[in-house]
Write a structure and sequence with these properties.
The chain is an alpha+beta fold. It has two domains: 191 residues, no CATH class; 140 residues, no CATH class. Helix content is 24%, strand content 18%. It is built from eight helices and 16 strands. The strands form five sheets. The chain has a five-stranded antiparallel β-sheet with strand order 12-16-15-14-13, covered by helices on one side. A three-stranded antiparallel β-sheet has the order 3-6-4. The longest helix has 17 residues. One of its GO terms (biological process) is cellular response to amino acid starvation. This is DEPDC5 protein C-terminal domain-containing protein. One of its GO terms (cellular component) is lysosomal membrane. GO terms for molecular function: GTPase activator activity.
Length: 373
């Protein structure tokens, strides 16, 4: 039997087909161990499905505009009066109630329930799926500015049960996710035990690994610099000098940024709007979670008396225990990290002309790590 084509002129048919035919994965609350109703979904799933199945909605912008114009689709936010403000973080609950392309909890209103009256049975995280801030104005708000929400780790009990307040924590996280930047979450708790928090995090790590993500802990200060009196001297980073006189002065920083990407490093912060502690540094973390690199931005000009210099600081993630390592590197992490450090040093020193070769090829065409190094 031929399935009729979908058009924007018949939104009822489009939405019903989405709930009936899309590869639905039930959304679950790990804290309360319940499965959300079938009319709950993520905005990224709906928008992707619309682009594949509705001929007039071929772009992300058109599909997102269509979703926001459909009154039956509801984007959740916390009930009025609740505040998720933490430190200087902007609460997700204060944002405009619009649907964006990302990991945003939505629902489809049924006939006997108005969309504005629906409230989610659990606390949740809303994250936009965006590109980087490279094309944004420096005056624009950073897309990755932190947001926060409270998460119950165990439900509240009664006085007889001795758990009146329950156990909960506050999760501070990036408000957007991008494939070319590390996604950061900070967990703060007061009314919770370390065992409960640890079990929750281990559950998140297992789920992340199931969907081919890598979730790992990092220290609050990735680079224990000697000029910081609070730094641990045993974690002092390694300084790696970059050969000078090999590359054009105006291309040195851009080449090193590309070199770090070729080695598998991704930015830790939005460098378009600056880093929290060192605005003149370019800080990255390796995809495996075991290594950090901070590229210290050199002066823009150089003279004979003051030649152009550049260096990077290389640091290890000492919080990456065996439990949080990726499956492929569980037993060879130390050997892999030593290999990466040795190779990176050789390229920076221009051993066998590798730095110059990388510069010449990387600015002509995009090739993989093996082709460049």
């Amino acid at each position: 039997m031929m399935v009729p084509s979908l058009t924007v002129a018949n939104p009822e048919q489009v939405l019903n087909r989405f709930l009936d035919k899309c590869p639905y994965i039930p959304l679950q609350s790990t804290a309360q161990n319940i499965t959300l109703p079938n009319n709950y979904f993520l905005s990224i799933d709906l928008i992707n499905w619309l682009m594949e199945n509705v001929s007039q909605l071929t772009t992300r912008e058109k599909a997102t505009e269509y979703v926001n114009g459909e009154p039956r689709i509801n984007s959740f936010r916390s009930p009025p009066g609740e505040s998720d403000e933490v430190d200087s973080c902007r609460s997700l609950d204060t944002e405009k109630r619009s649907i964006r392309y990302g990991f945003q909890l939505c629902s489809l209103a049924s006939d006997n329930m108005e969309s504005d009256q629906q409230t989610p049975p659990v606390r949740y995280m809303k994250v936009d799926y965006v590109n980087s801030c490279e094309n944004c104005s420096i005056k624009d708000e950073c897309r990755f500015a932190p947001g926060a929400f409270d998460l119950e780790l165990s439900p509240r009990g009664t006085i007889d049960e001795g758990n009146v307040l329950g156990e909960w924590c506050r999760v501070v996280h990036d408000r957007a996710f991008s494939e070319d930047k590390a996604f950061e979450m900070t967990i703060k708790w007061f009314l919770a035990s370390g065992v409960t928090v640890g079990e929750a995090i281990r559950g998140w790590v297992e789920k992340a690994d199931k969907f081919h993500f890598n979730l790992f802990p990092v220290p609050e200060d990735a680079f224990a610099m000697p000029n910081d009196v609070h730094s641990n001297p045993l974690r002092c980073p390694l300084r790696i000098e970059v050969a000078i006189g090999i590359l054009p002065v105006d291309q040195l920083t851009a080449t090193l940024v590309k070199l770090l990407a070729a080695f598998g490093f991704v930015p830790m912060y939005c460098h378009r709007h600056g880093t929290p502690n060192q605005p003149r540094s370019y800080q990255v973390v390796h995809e495996c979670g075991g290594m950090f690199v901070s590229l210290e931005t050199p002066p823009s000009t150089a003279t004979d008396a003051q030649p152009q210099t550049a260096h990077v600081f290389w640091s290890w993630n000492h919080m990456l225990s065996h439990r949080y390592r990726t499956t492929a590197l569980k037993d060879i992490m130390e050997d892999f990290q030593d290999y990466m450090l040795r190779e990176f040093r050789d390229v920076c020193k221009n051993v066998d002309g590798r730095l110059l070769k990388f510069y010449e090829k990387s600015f002509l065409n995009r090739v993989g790590l093996n082709g460049l190094l």
